[in-house]
Description:
By secondary structure, the protein is mainly α. Helices cover 54% and strands 3% of the residues. It binds zinc ion. Zinc ion (ZN) binds at residues 26-27, 96-97, 121, 166, 170.
Amino acid sequence: MRKIKKLIVPMFIVGILLFSCIPSASAWSSHGLALSYVLQNENWLDEYDNITITEYSYEDVDTEPYSPDFVIRYLEGSIGEKTTAKKILTTYADEPDWNMDTNLELSKLQILTGGSQGYRHQYYGLGFLRIGAGPKRAQYWFDLAKIANERGDLYWTFRFLARGIHHIEDLTCPYHGVPAPIGIIFSKIIKIGELTTIASNHHYNMEEFQGQQINHTNPEWLSVLNEAEPLDLNKVRSVTWLGQYAASISKNNVRSLWTIENELFGEKISNPEEWLYTEDPTFSFEGKEDVVERYNEEILKSFTNFATFSRTFLQYARINIGL
Ligand SMILES: [Zn+2]
């Protein structure tokens, strides 16, 4: 017991240092677009092709706070018009990033995740320390989808599911599990500001690269989204469990990603200055084709989880909500 007590303080300090260098990021780029490729093989959704857009009316059960800046928007049509389940899911899979969770006081620990948005979209683990409400938020939206379905409101059933899937997908992003390899954190422990910028550089350049593959419809990436198999649904204990599991396996790729990023992007990524390769006209991938290929493969390992966990969440919802 005394040994455990002795460990708590140093672990907590490392935790603070670790988490305080996390940028409040939005995780994968283009949730909705990437999800549209996952949904191509979810044929059961096609029968939901005539859903009436209804006005939000869940104040009685949707009791967790929204950001004061958040406004509900209807992007695919007006209230009373028709839409489809696939359209709702792909339109609103990005909605939790639209100012829904900013400027809130949720937890004293939210400072360690870059604020309330980071707190609700992430789930960091170090030893037994866990920070972030990502998995719980996925469960929260899933439970509301169930209520909407019981009320006979298919529009909000799928819109709440879109919000839930966003959180599950966020948790498959490696840099949302840990911001940098532990060895790097220790080596920079007295230069936290520097570490913060370097960790952000790795995180944002990875997302930029990933976003470009999807936006440029790289066939290898699209087939990963198309073909990834779901997890065994019998093992899924709850949506919270699914989110926690996603975070626990995704962060394992951070060390290998970090190494390749150093090789591919060169010293600029490790300078204590913000740098994005897409904004640097002097940067080019020329002559680095083999590194690009390795990077591609490494991110794809994590991005497969995006598809696997999205699919698992939807199929779990189909069974447990009765869709
Ligand atoms: Zn997010």
